[in-house]
Design a protein that fits this description.
The chain is of the alpha+beta class. The protein contains 23 helices and 28 strands. Strands 9, 11, 12, 14, 17 and 19 form a six-stranded antiparallel sheet that branches. Helix 9 runs parallel beside helix 11. The longest helix has about 45 residues. The protein is globular and about 90 Å long.
Length: about 800
Amino acid sequence: MKYLKKHWLYVSTIALALITFIIVYRPTLFNFFIADDFYQMTWMNGALECPNMLLKTYWTPWIECRDRIPTTDSFLFYRPVFASILFWECKFLGLNGLYLRLVNLVIELASGLMVALIVLAFDKTSNEESSLSIRQSIVWALFSAIFFVLFPSHSESVNWIADGSDLWVTLFSLVSLWCYIQWRNKSKQSFLIFSIVSALLAFLTKEMAVALPPTILAYEFFVQRCSDRNTQKIGSDSINAGTQLHMAITTTLPYWLICILYFCLRKLLLGDFIGGYPDNMCNPLSISGWLKGLYTIFVPINPFIIGTHLLIYRSWHIVLSIIILLTIIATIKINRDKRKVIYFLIIWFLLCLAPVYKVFATSLDYPCGQRIIYLASVPICMLLTYGIAYFCAGKQFSFVSRAITLSFFGFAVAMLYANNLAFAQAGHVSNKIVQSFRAYYQNIPGDPLVYAVGLPKLSNGIYIPLGHFLNGMMNRPMLDKNRLNCSWIGSDDQYTSIGFLKQAIEEKQQQIHLLYWDSELEVLKPVMSFSQDQINKDWQDISLRQTIRTPSFPHISQPDVHWLMDGTLDIVSHKSNSKYTIIELDLKELPCWQINFLALKLQLSQPENLGSFRGAQLFFVNDIARKYSKEYFGDYFVYDCCYAAVKATKQEQEIIFPLRNLPAWTMGGRCHSIRVVLPADCNINIKKIWLPDIKDLMPSVHLQSTTDYPPDRIKLDRYQTLQHIRYDARSINGCKQIVLEIVPNSKFFTFLNSKDNSKIIFLKKSASSSWGQFSLSRSEFPAKKTIYRAQLRALDEAGNQLGFPSDQFFIYTDL
């Protein structure tokens, strides 16, 4: 009680911080999983039944999305300790997102405690030569810990169960560093042993631990050696920097040996010292990318919740600038020899970014990707709070400094709460999807082919079940039993071809269930049945006038529209306020399923004025896509539209939009409206709109597939060593040659139904007949277990492409 009375201010500050911490994380304290969590829980469910799976993580790599077929884009990691930690958490707490999230919160608080202890250890290292008073050191430690546990970017690591490795590697790294400092200050071997053990655990938890040995070396060189010199432990001031560096390396040698052994182990298990994300999944390193990443670190604001126009966004920049200025002023005011701790913190921050250099410019974005700077946030918090601790507990400007500090922490709390609200919303949507699949499968016997379209990819910027994540959701414990034949269909999905699904259903080759996500009711519904009734396929003259309208927009200049005597529409647009011309088409609620392509015949009267935008984009509204992707133009999400090139010529030209392989279109029920964005400042005369026949534009393909295998893929293995691919392009006018292109499945493949050639060709075959078959042998694919993507192109006598390439299909190779 006497201690509480003496230090009531510090105790009350800690209590208030804990209460605030609980309040800001309250929105996410319920049972939910997102994204990779479903794979983690599926794997943990199997490991609980067969613990040998856990043991294998110590001598086999951790494959992200481990139950998918490995491809050239597989992400390989080595994190056995994190797998073990998560295993024992699930063993005692069950597969419950709430309990696992509470453990993450405890680890977050434990790391915050270690942050405070390390700051206090800095002061003890400096002895009586400390740059701060005892009170200032305590305030610095307290502020650093509080700001760390309330740091806005920590929301992802705490709420995303699969990302718990960042929490644990940070805790192990901080414990190792603190124990090392204690060993150097007190010379107790027990601290050194604890430090080395913590370092080993950190290395086996996540790759970020490679920053630990150079961090300890930097501490030894900048802080500890300076303190030793001042207390006459290693001799006079004449010892040069090279000698001090050599002594620092010798002292920290055990950590470097651990690091070398770790890299050798990675080379043995992963086949690469670096591993992790493959190079083709990472953007090239650039100064602008790093500057953007650094900006995101210091401005951890979710733009989906807090817009750039809001007061809190602007105020954070002002307060942050003042805080940084206070740290700079405090650093200048102290003696030059006492700035070693500041130098160490800056180097520590840079070292924490080194392990993520490959993905820094690619993945660091808000709200996703903040996990990669979790460890780096430790020195950031210490640096940002150094100045306010110096002035708040000092004699000068203490009142103003305290007001700024309250504002600083207040804004941080508000942003962290907003980030948690985003994760909570994503969790609620994720739970709705799980509940819908549970209800659907209760009435479906067996495990038929099921395809779901329209599932939300993001919620306020947070990833929820999509793509390969959905496969994790389709297993126990999320469902009553494992469902192996359910797939998510997205426009950027790499493993499903809408065209082949459509062909299989129309020809009644297989029993396929199609579902779509009703975003308003938040429930899965079956895709409406599609009749093959006769529909209007041509609009010109009077029908063209009834179909086209020109909407008005406040930020886009209205074009001059004239209907000519020949029944064509003449559009004269102006470039003063916009570089686009927008028209809308009313197709009278036609079924999207029956429309594969939509074409416009037009003519440009002033093609020389054609600007940089030399194309046309098509957007649509139907039963799935309830509204246009964005209310402004020029920045559409590419997967919600399709593109057609416009030639700079005065001759009549046809522009054709390939709608066939857009999931939201084909599965979208009836078309309510179409919006076409055309170039501006060049007079356009629209003569006709029609629906081309698919057989006139692209080769038809028939695969050898079984009734229980997806219709868009074939398998080559020891049992099926030969596959035949039948094709027919006789209806394509001028077709003299067919080319089969096969590439490894990666992001370098062209978009569906694109006229662009593929950038990487693994295997290419050609045939001089417009109909026939290609044969593929297992011996032509050297990889043991890989996915390839393929398509056919029709060429004329000169080798030019005719129409569009065929629907893409997939080749799965196995042992």
